[in-house]
Amino acid sequence: MRMALMLGSGLFWTLTYVLIILKGLRDKTYGMPLAALGANLSWEFLFGFVRQGQPVQTMVNIVWFVADLAILYTVLKFGPREFPKLRPLHFSLLVAGTLGLAFGGVLLVSDEFDAGKATYAAFGQNLMMSALFIAMLISRAGLRGQSVWIAAAKLAGTALASAAIWTFDAGRDTPLLVYLYLATLLLDLAYLVAVVLVKRNSAPNPVGQG
After folding, report:
1. Angle in degrees, CA 20, 22, 26, rounded to 5
2. Which residues contact 149 (CB under 8 A, 6 or more apart)?
3. pLDDT, tens digit, for every residue of 94-136?
4. In three state form, how does the secondary structure of the chain look?
5. For residues 151 and 192, is the Cβ–Cβ distance under 8 A?
6. CA dihedral sign, ordered 124, 126, 132, 134
7. Angle of CA points 203, 205, 209, to nearest 5°
8. Could you read off the pLDDT of 130-178 as tens digits, one per residue?
9. What burial letters (b/e) apply to 50-62, b meaning 16+ CB within 10 Å?
10. What is the C-alpha separation between 199 and 210, in angstroms, rounded?
């Protein structure tokens, strides 16, 4: 059952990445907040190539890393449009600095709270990511780079991973992790509802209706 939950989480998160890439290319923007992307790339590099665990999860981490490289491409290609007051060089330096800081944060959280393992860093950055997606929705006009399907897939992927760790991993039901599971779930639900409302409010009215 645990493996089924983790595989389901992997599939939904892979779907999330694919949808973000496609929506970003179509809208000529990027669909993942920069700090969240930095944390994701750092976590996937660390636990896909440096600190490998179970073979299946390691392979999933590598697939996610490749997908996040594609998202990074959309950031570098379209990101300067989102920050018109920054020169392209300055934006590139911002991206590089964010990636460097993110790697240090993921590494230290893993060492400090989890004896070098992946769980605390993963759910900590998931909570940050959920908040940043809401912030990105607020800051942008409409749903550029975002969609209901992205929000739903992200919600499902993290919820299944939380259920797997909470239910089947002995010693992983610490108060901090329980807080991270529940807080992330609430923010993901809020993000999904917000995206649905934005989509509904931006839809054109039928002819003849005010």
Report:
1. 115
2. 19
3. 999 999 999 999 999 999 988 899 989 999 999 999 999 999 9
4. CHHHHHHHHHHHHHHHHHHHHHHHHHHCCCCCCHHHHHHHHHHHHHHHHHCCCCHHHHHHHHHHHHHHHHHHHHHHHHHHHHCCCCCHHHHHHHHHHHHHHHHHHHHHHHHHHHCCCCHHHHHHHHHHHHHHHHHHHHHCCCCCCCCHHHHHHHHHHHHHHHHHHHHHCCCCCCHHHHHHHHHHHHHHHHHHHHHHHHHHHHCCCCCCCC
5. yes
6. negative
7. 165
8. 999 999 999 987 899 999 999 999 999 999 988 888 877 655 668 888 8
9. eeeeeeebeebbb
10. 18
What are the tokens at 103? 């790697």
What token pair was written down for 97? 């600095």
Lookup result for tokens 């499902």: 156
Please name the residue that has the structure tokens 């039928």: 206
